[in-house]
Amino acid sequence: MTVDNQNQLPVVKQDLSRRQKLIAVVKLMMLRSSEASISDNSKVIAYYSLLSIFPLLIVIGNILPYFQLDVMSVADYVQTAVPPTIFDKIMPVLQSLLKKRNDGLLSVGILGTLWAASMGINALKNSINRAYRVEKVQNFVLKRLISLGSTLLLLLLLVGLIVVFTFGQQVLELLVPIFNIPKTYVNIFSSLKWPVTGIALFLLLIFIYFFVPNVKMRLRSVLPGAALTTVGWLILAQAFSLYIRYFGTSWNSYGAIGAVIILLLWLNYSATILMVGAVLNVVIEEALHGHVNASRGKVHDFIARRRDQNE
Questions:
Q1: How many domains does the chain have?
Q2: Residue 3 within a domain
Q3: Which cell locations does it reside in (predicted)?
Q4: Mean pLDDT lowest for which of 207-216, 282-291, 293-302?
Q5: What is the spatial distance between Cα 26 and Cα 96, in angstroms, rounded to a whole number?
Q6: Burial of 3 by CB count in 10 Å (0-12 exposed, 13-18 middle, 19+ buried)?
Q7: From CA 94, how far away is CA 90, in angstroms rounded?
Q8: Over the chain, what is the mean pLDDT?
Q9: Quick check: is 4 in a domain?
């Protein structure tokens, strides 16, 4: 529930000049950024993300063999969004898992991922809720169940993106003789790793900003924050790799501990960008439509609507 007077007019509907409206939006952005505790919440998100990364890799690495997928076919896309130093640590783990499918490891990985990643989703939800300025409106059991469901959906989305990355070019090659498609299009698709990675991240962030928090927000209001975070993450991946190359070489002497520290730093910066995107979303929603309404979650609202329709 918002703190401001709910009857206050949105900025765009107030009798102000364009300059005054712009100043009002900038002030609102600064105020919401301060209220969201971006630095503190970014550290929480980074910590729980670190806990969930390797169980998540175990699950994905054991699912890919069922689709006869080669992890290296999506390596270029992953490398676009992840700094090379971190990429070099992650890929050997996936390659070792793909050598032999282990159903027992898969079940253990799912349990570990659901436990750790659901806590990460819950921390992410609480952080974005704070940015969106809503109170907790779910009981503990419902909150954990929804966090588990969101984790499963996120896992399915990641696997789906990997399948698309892998089979996208193969599908185009099959369509070339049927529809007389120039083979240059296939080569263009394989070279467009930046746009494809950007679109995948953009869709993933829309899911996070729209479905995870407990708010009734218009879909178009989360698009600017998702776009900003997508661009920010891609720039961060390249900038972070340059930093490690020229200024962070001493971390390599610490071995595994240095790798964990580097990974945690990158996750913290990524979470900061994610929180800035969430603040941008709430500022746009408030500037265009007024206060942000709290809800019990998208799943709860969907069930309630279906129940009302049946009645």
A1: 1
A2: no
A3: Cell membrane
A4: 293-302
A5: 49
A6: exposed
A7: 7
A8: 73
A9: no
